[in-house]
Design goal:
With 190 residues, the protein is an alpha/beta fold. The protein has one domain: Rossmann fold, CATH 3.40.50. The protein is built from 9 helices and 9 strands. Strands 3-2-4-5-6-8-9 form a 7-stranded mixed β-sheet. The protein is globular, with a radius of gyration of 17 Å. The model has no long low-confidence stretch (mean pLDDT 91).
């Protein structure tokens, strides 16, 4: 087997770190996971490690349908969560707008691993560069087309990550973005 491996499941820890830097007062962080995604357990484990490292509490909620997402955000409000971390999941990637609207409605800073979330109105993302990963896939495909046997082409790991911040959302939430975070950002959405 060949291809490009993404670090999605391992990013929970790093996302908690970035969230801690941006919203240090967020003591209770919700982690939204799709129960239908087998990688969710790895993502949860990584996020739990980050929460312990930064002295935060993590409330894990599961949502695998549009309705369950709405219900999960109602629970976040009841539990007085300070921020929400969206687990990496293909279904959630199709619901970025819904998730951003719900986070805004509940005035919750939202972090995720894909740039589409802050593009849709979420606060911040940190994750693999999709452009770089697809470029790597093209390189692997080129090697195969030139005669390499797929079984002999190793799995490549994505190595380029990007930080995207939505400054408009930060302003709406009353969050001042630290200059150190702005300096590291690959893109700042006004």
């Amino acid at each position: 087997m060949t291809g490009v491996s993404w670090f999605h499941a391992e990013l929970g820890n790093k996302l908690i770190e970035v969230l801690h830097e941006l919203v240090p007062q967020a003591e209770l962080i919700a982690l939204l996971l799709n129960p239908n995604n087998p990688e969710g357990a790895f993502f949860e484990q990584s996020a739990q490690e980050g929460a312990r490292l930064f002295g935060r509490r993590l409330l894990v909620l599961k949502a695998g349908t549009v309705r369950e997402i709405d219900e999960a955000f109602a629970t976040l409000a009841e539990r007085r969560v300070n921020a929400v971390l969206i687990g990496s999941d293909p279904f959630y990637a199709t619901r970025t707008r819904q998730l951003a609207v719900l986070a805004a409605r509940h005035t919750l800073p939202m972090i995720a691993s894909a740039r589409e979330y802050p593009m849709a109105g979420g606060l911040i993302s940190y994750g693999n560069s999709v452009t770089d990963a697809y470029r790597r896939v093209g390189i692997l495909a080129g090697r195969i087309l030139k005669g390499a046997k797929p079984a002999e082409v190793p799995v490549d790991r994505a190595t380029r990550f990007e930080l995207v911040i939505n400054r408009g959302t930060a302003k709406a939430l009353g969050i001042e973005i630290p200059p150190t975070l702005l300096a590291r950002a690959d893109e700042v959405i006004e």
